[in-house]
Amino acid sequence: MNTSSKLQYEASPRGKPSVTIGSRVEMFIDDWLIESMNGAQLKLNQPERKEIVLVLDQPWEGPLGTYFTVLQDGAKIRLYYRGYIPPGAADVTDDQRVCYAESEDGIHFVRPELGLCEFEGSSRNNILFAGALAHNFTPFLDRSPHAKGGEIYKGVGGTGTADPSRNDGTLYGLTSPDGIHWQQMKAPLNMPSGGFDSQNVVFWDAAAGVYRCYNRYFDSGKYRAVQSCSSDNFTDWSDQQPNRYAEGVPMEQFYTNATIPCPGAEHLYLAFPKRFVPERKKIAEHPFGGVSDTCFMTSRDGVHWNRTFMEAWLRPGRDDRNWTERSNMVAYGCIETTPEEFSFYVSEHYRWDDNRLRRLAVRKHGFASVSAGYESGEMTTRPIVLEGDRLLLNYSTSAAGSIRVEVQDEFGQPIEGLALSDMEALYGDNLAEVVQWRTTADLSAWRGQTVRFRFVLQDADLFAIRIASVS
Fold this sequence. Notes:
Mean pLDDT: 95
Radius of gyration: 24 Å
CATH superfamily of the largest domain: Glycosyl hydrolase domain, family 43
Low-confidence stretches: 1-13
CATH architecture of the largest domain: 5 Propeller
Organism: Paenibacillus hemerocallicola
Number of strands: 36
Protein name: Glycosyl hydrolase family 32 N-terminal domain-containing protein
């Protein structure tokens, strides 16, 4: 994987080259920071299904509502989604709606009466606008330094053509001063070809200094796949780059992508594609074929994607209505509902009369972990140029489990006073616990030097590390 644009490398006497990570949170979502493991493994951690936060039971919503977006806007959480579309109507019909709800806690959402758009003779509803762009409208809060006040909210919408597999669709831009009143830009976005017929997501990538758009295209005319392009002005876009995977990773149908920079670790890109298996049918009486789940994949440059975990991040579960074709779609966006928890949202029961959105809870920066069982295991990092004073761990153990840490020099030799034997076993559950050896927790004497960290785990998970500065 080519990550040279993001990372600084130095020569190392063995194994992987040394890296400078500063004070960033480094999650164990791939093997990038790992030089060796023995008796330990990388483990994907599934989210916890929580509350149903919205049922699309209003006349202007219904069983075909989908393509949810959640935005954290200060203390307010904004929710956008497609509402009504007539059954059997073409994707390009003007008779469809974008709806809006909001929340203060990410759990209890209310539909404000906006008075903006009539439905069956009344504007007492939460509809933002109607038209073909409502089909898959996806907004974002523009964090770029040159975002204008009247366009601080932006969005995209586009329904492709009658045959989206030709990849000749058009994507349109929209802007808003407040997230409620939207205006379509005069001309379509100058963006190269794509299908654009599902949820296309855009965000400002502060690490790269560009807008990124992840959108759907059809690979070889038949596989639903993900590609991306970039822009420095939101209007003119680079050539599309298909997501690249390691050799041997099988082609799967990715209906949506839900790509985000990880909050608090924005140098890492996370994606939650809805994996569609069109040839299967679980519920015989359902009129449509196909089943879906959600996968998890990561990137360090936004183009090369790591599928360390081929298994599902979110399974349909025991609910029969989640075993019909277009459920289990993760909404675009991540909300920090508490200092210790991320919230994601997933659609359930698509095409059913109780079509709905459910919250998912994820440990902060706990998507995956280095994990070892009761027999214990160990992991040693690649060389790291130390730039901080304290080592902080996001970890969890059982009551009988533990984690011990050793700091080694660049040649793999324990540093005096920081060896395994110099530390009492660490146990508990903490998102940012400072590692304490018997005589010190201070690593400032080794600032600027190359070190490795060796972790010995017993019935424990190590989710992430950070090297913090206190001086």
